[in-house]
Specification:
The chain has 46 residues and is mainly alpha-helical. Helix content is 72%, strand content 0%.
Amino acid sequence: MKKAPSHDTIQHAFAMLDPTYLQTYQTQFNQLLNQNENQKIKKLLH
Protein backbone atom coordinates (compact mmCIF):
# COMPACT_ATOMS: atom_id res chain seq x y z
CA MET A 1 0.00 0.00 0.00
CA LYS A 2 1.34 3.41 -0.96
CA LYS A 3 1.38 6.17 1.61
CA ALA A 4 0.27 9.71 0.94
CA PRO A 5 3.11 12.23 0.77
CA SER A 6 3.90 13.97 4.02
CA HIS A 7 2.84 17.54 4.63
CA ASP A 8 6.50 18.56 4.33
CA THR A 9 6.68 17.10 0.83
CA ILE A 10 3.50 18.84 -0.25
CA GLN A 11 4.64 22.12 1.29
CA HIS A 12 8.00 21.86 -0.49
CA ALA A 13 6.30 21.19 -3.84
CA PHE A 14 3.99 24.19 -3.50
CA ALA A 15 6.88 26.39 -2.38
CA MET A 16 8.55 25.76 -5.74
CA LEU A 17 5.56 27.11 -7.66
CA ASP A 18 5.22 30.74 -8.62
CA PRO A 19 2.52 32.36 -6.44
CA THR A 20 1.28 34.35 -9.43
CA TYR A 21 0.70 31.12 -11.34
CA LEU A 22 -1.21 29.62 -8.42
CA GLN A 23 -3.36 32.72 -8.08
CA THR A 24 -4.13 32.72 -11.81
CA TYR A 25 -5.01 29.03 -11.76
CA GLN A 26 -7.23 29.46 -8.70
CA THR A 27 -9.03 32.39 -10.32
CA GLN A 28 -9.68 30.41 -13.50
CA PHE A 29 -10.87 27.41 -11.50
CA ASN A 30 -13.27 29.60 -9.52
CA GLN A 31 -14.61 31.14 -12.73
CA LEU A 32 -15.34 27.67 -14.10
CA LEU A 33 -17.23 26.79 -10.95
CA ASN A 34 -19.23 30.00 -11.23
CA GLN A 35 -20.13 29.21 -14.84
CA ASN A 36 -21.90 25.97 -13.87
CA GLU A 37 -18.99 23.93 -15.19
CA ASN A 38 -18.84 22.04 -11.90
CA GLN A 39 -20.22 18.83 -13.44
CA LYS A 40 -17.43 18.75 -16.03
CA ILE A 41 -14.84 19.43 -13.34
CA LYS A 42 -16.23 16.64 -11.15
CA LYS A 43 -15.81 14.23 -14.08
CA LEU A 44 -12.20 15.33 -14.54
CA LEU A 45 -11.38 14.87 -10.86
CA HIS A 46 -12.97 11.44 -10.47
